[in-house]
Amino acid sequence: MLRIVIAVTDDEESIKNAIRDILRAKHKGHEVALDLTRIKDRDRKKEIMKLLTKY
Known about the structure:
single chain, alpha+beta, two-stranded parallel sheet, 53% helix
């Protein structure tokens, strides 16, 4: 099974693209791994992680 790595930065455009990529990968049957290393603020990283793991 193919695993897609999605790099997310701290702007809204990147988050919208990540949601779109997650939904596309799930539809195709691929696994998804999120790369949140570019986000420095811990609280913001938690918010984004909660938002993206919903999908």
